[in-house]
Amino acid sequence: MYTLKDNGIVEEIACGNNFGYLLSDSKYFANTDYKVLQSQTSGIFVPCMKMLFNGKIQIYYITDEYRPLSTMFSGITSDILLHIAVNMFGCIVEVKNNGFLSSQNIDISWDKIFVDPATLKVRLVYLPVNVRVFESFSEFQSELRSSLIKLIDKILPESSERMDKFVPDLANGSMSLEEIFNKYKGAGGGGEYQSPRPNTRESDASGLLKLVAMNAPEYFEIQLDRTKVVIGKKQGMVYGSAKSRRAHCLRRTV
């Protein structure tokens, strides 16, 4: 969401394999959007939770085993990229037709489109704020389609018959995103993305969220197994971190 970051409305914070968006002011938080987001069961969104970080609202996203599309560019085939794009369109069409959330608040940066390498299923990052990245759905889809055309031209060494049909349809303004999705959905599985994955610390099999100290003298983690956890000198000092002497971070499960 470069526009919001450039305008100082949000700040991105890396959290290991996960990430968060820190809001510069609580007035930007859209509580209704957040509640609707939490009630979604279709699995098209990256799960998120509202937290407090240094007194500011942070939307924390848990990516699990999904990978950013940007990390899959190396060695990707045209069929796999097409399949991912169609799955992404399907998710966006579902959001648009649902009517409760705004497609314009979907982060369409390539490092914020998350993909399951085994199934090529896509999950989207939705930011529940009352400031729109795009003024209309038309502007949103125009940016997405033009960016996708540029990406295809940049990363694919060779095309395919299906991709040669897909790109002109992307450029065809008379075809809606939903029409493109309906035309190409189910046209082929695309296979499984086989690129080697980077080594990461194994996640806890219990599925509990962990808070891991960064730049500490030794590895330290806290398992967040309660509905409300305060990290700081008073209720849980973070060992080895001079930055966490006072009540430093509040995590609440809503």
Explain this structure.
- This protein is α+β, with helices and mostly antiparallel strands and about 250 residues long.
- It contains six helices and eleven strands.
- It has helices spanning about 1-5, 30-40, 80-100, 135-155, 160-170, 175-185, and strands at about 10-15, 20-25, 50-55, 55-60, 65-70, 115, 120-125, 210, 220-225, 230, 250.
- The chain has a six-stranded antiparallel beta sheet.
- The protein is globular, with a radius of gyration of 20 Å.
- The two termini are about 25 Å apart.
Spell out the key features of this protein:
6-stranded antiparallel β-sheet; 6 helices; 11 strands; 29% helix; alpha+beta; globular; 254 residues; 3-stranded antiparallel β-sheet
Task: Give a brief description.
With 254 residues, the protein is of the alpha+beta class.
Uncertain stretches: 188-206, 234-239
Largest sheet: 6 strands, antiparallel
Order of helices and strands: HEEHEEEHEEHHHEEEE
Rg, rounded, reads 20 Å
- For the largest sheet, list the strands in their spatial order: 1-2-4-3-11-10
The strand count comes to: 11
Strand content: 15-25%
Distance between the termini: 25 Å
Computed structural class: alpha+beta
> Number of helix segments?
6
Give the CA-based shape.
Answer: globular
| Arithmetic mean pLDDT | 80
Helix content: 25-40%
